[in-house]
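Appendix B, Record 12. Input sequence as logged:
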Amino acid sequence: MKRWYAALGVGVVALCVWATPSSASPDDSLQCGDHLVRVGETLGAVLLECGQPTAATHRFVKSRRGRGSVDVLTYERDGSFPRVLSFDCGALTDITILSRFRD
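Logged structural output:
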């Protein structure tokens, strides 16, 4: 039984590594102090550099490829459009710039 759990754990890690993009577009970034956050960074690194988001959601998902977690963080900064950061298995996969400010 322990071997099955170990194999499942290795499979989930492999899935997360495989699903992580290898390159980032120059538009996919968020400035946090002196640090430029880009696609591929970890959730922990983003929270450390940018602090607490304005809004956050976390959920576990199950698909044909296995199980994983999805996190969505929203950062609203003065003078700039809000950014929505999407994480898959703890790795930043997408940064979306919202077209207008929320009320």
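The first helix runs from residue 2 to 19.
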